[in-house]
Amino acid sequence: PSFAVGRAQALLLVLQRLKAAGAIPSQLPIFVDSPMAVEATALYRRFGALLRVPRREVQTLCDGVRLVTTVQQSVRLAAARYPAIIISASGMATGGRVLGHLKAMAPEPRHTLLFAGFQVGGSRGARLMAGEREVKIFGEMVPVRADVQQLAGISGHADRHELLAWLRHIR
Question: What's the count of helices (H) and strands (E) in the chain, helices before strands?
Answer without folding.
Answer: 7, 7
